[in-house]
């Protein structure tokens, strides 16, 4: 179980036990946001026409690390949340 799935489960449990409408709305928004991220599926880092890496879902370009002289490839796109199948 991923950390995102654990958080989703935690918020789902909490929203059923709260009685204050403001708190319930907050938990509902958190559940909605996490469910949307879960539905994103997988993506991958692809090179565009200029040989620059981009997320296959949203086009986000990862940060360049000048010390390593390479791009920082994460397991998830920091922009859209898609899980990357290949971190190059």
Break the fold down into its secondary structure elements and pairings:
Layout lengths: L2 H15 L3 H18 L3 E2 L1 E3 L5 E3 L8 E2 L4 E2 L11 E2 L4
Helix pairs in contact: 1-2
* Number of E strands: 6
Average pLDDT over all residues: 84
Give the amount of beta strand, in percent.
15-25%
The domain tally reads 2
Low-confidence stretches: none
User: How would you write the strand order of the largest sheet?
Assistant: 1-6
- Rg: 17 Å
Structural class: alpha+beta
State the helicity in percent bands.
25-40%
Distance between the termini: 24 Å
Q: What characteristic shape results from the CA principal axes? A: elongated
Total of DSSP H or I helical runs spanning 4+ residues: 2
Main beta sheet:
2 strands, parallel
List SSEs in N-to-C order.
HHEEEEEE
3D architecture notes:
The protein is α+β, with helices and mostly antiparallel strands. The protein has 2 domains: 3-38, no CATH class; 41-88, no CATH class. The chain has 2 helices and 6 strands; from the N terminus they run ααββββββ. It has helices spanning 3-17, 21-38; strands at 42-43, 45-47, 53-55, 64-65, 70-71, 83-84. The strands form 3 sheets. A two-stranded parallel sheet has the order 1-6. The chain has a two-stranded antiparallel sheet with strand order 2-3. α1 (3-17) packs antiparallel against α2 (21-38). The chain is elongated.
């Amino acid at each position: 179980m991923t950390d995102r799935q654990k958080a989703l489960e935690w918020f789902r449990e909490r929203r059923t036990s709260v009685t204050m409408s403001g708190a319930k709305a907050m938990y509902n928004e958190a559940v909605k946001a996490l469910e949307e991220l879960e539905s994103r599926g997988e993506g991958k880092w692809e090179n565009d026409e200029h040989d620059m890496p981009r997320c296959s879902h949203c086009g986000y370009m990862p940060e360049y690390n000048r010390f390593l002289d390479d791009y920082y490839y994460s397991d998830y796109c920091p922009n859209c949340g898609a899980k990357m199948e290949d971190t190059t």
